Amino acid sequence: MSNLDDKIREALAAEDAELFDELGEQSLPQLVFESFRSKFRFLTAMTVVMSVVMFGVAVFCLVKFFGTDDVNTRIAWALGVWFGMQATGMLKLWHWMEIQKLAVTREVKRVELQIARLSQRVGCSGEH
After folding, report:
1. Which one of 1, 4, 20, 66 is most buried, by most CB atoms within 10 A?
2. In this structure, is residue 27 part of a structural domain?
3. What is the pLDDT of residue 96?
4. Nearest to 5 by CA among 21, 22, 26, 28
5. Longest dimension (CA), the chain
């Protein structure tokens, strides 16, 4: 916990503090599982499956690479390894960006909640 979080908790009422804690930072496994509950859960699941498939393609090509003596065939298998690893990396990168987007969205909603609670306490109705 940072000092800022502690100061915010002190300023909030007890019920608000519970909600603030509930919406607090999540661990890495929680963020990963949250990505499977998001609006893009089908796409997230598909990228995970495809990254496993592409890694399998890379391993298969690597085994074939070491099993041949012909230079042209080795180059072809090496390109298969390169393609499989590049595809795996790009799919994983997309998944990590999705996790980051969900974490940032969660923090923005947390700030919106704090602003809404503060405006209720101050007595602002949101009208100018």
Report:
1. 20
2. no
3. 93
4. 21
5. 79
